[in-house]
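Please, structure for the following, as tokens.
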Amino acid sequence: MRIEAYNQIGQIYAPKKTYGTSKTNSVSRTDQVQISSLGKDIQTLKQAVASAPDVREELTAPIKAKVQSGSYDVSTDDFAGKLLAAFGA
């Protein structure tokens, strides 16, 4: 068994020692973030959109009442025409 080979491998993977290095001129730095006025405006708009309701009840309530009462009538010709227009046929 060759012990020298194990010693050489141990020397390769051993942590390196540094001599004569000292940090005398340490400068403390901090990271800073600055958000532009446009970024602030966008954030304000995002918050306004998030707080707005998803459904406008004043528009959907009359239609919902008609559907529940059974008096909501959809013309099949109008429906088919809008489908064809939406899908480009």
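The helical segments are 3-13, 37-51, 57-69, 76-86. The mean pLDDT is 84.
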